[in-house]
Design goal:
about 110 residues; Recoverin, domain 1
């Protein structure tokens, strides 16, 4: 298996541990969409306590990638995702974070 496959297996294990239902093929597309960030230890995770990081998620993923605007309660969705992954969980993997946000807003068509 390659590095990407190893990471996907790690993310699947994390999602199973958190009892998150997911579509494996769709999730793999989200992982691919994250690009090289998944290979960088710092960029591979989202810091739920860093306001600038959360602003980046909002602007770059929710607004630019998913095409949402502020009328969709973006901050509320981010807070909800942090709760699902666990506030004290240091491993808020970006791919899982993005997948949960995509499902929350029913934007699966972006990756289909």
């Amino acid at each position: 298996m390659g590095k990407k496959d190893d990471l996907i297996a790690k993310y699947h294990a994390e999602m199973d541990e958190l009892n998150i239902n997911y579509d494996a093929k769709l999730f793999e597309k989200v992982v691919t969409g994250c690009g090289p960030s998944i290979y960088n230890a710092d960029a591979a995770t989202v810091s739920g306590s860093d306001p600038s990081e959360l602003t980046t998620v909002k602007n770059n993923f929710l607004i630019r990638k998913l095409g949402l605007d502020e009328s969709h309660d973006l901050d509320g969705a981010i807070a909800s995702t942090i709760n699902i992954l666990g506030k004290s969980n240091r491993n808020k993997y970006r791919a899982i974070f993005y997948y949960l946000l995509m499902v929350h807003f029913k934007k699966e068509s972006v990756y289909a």
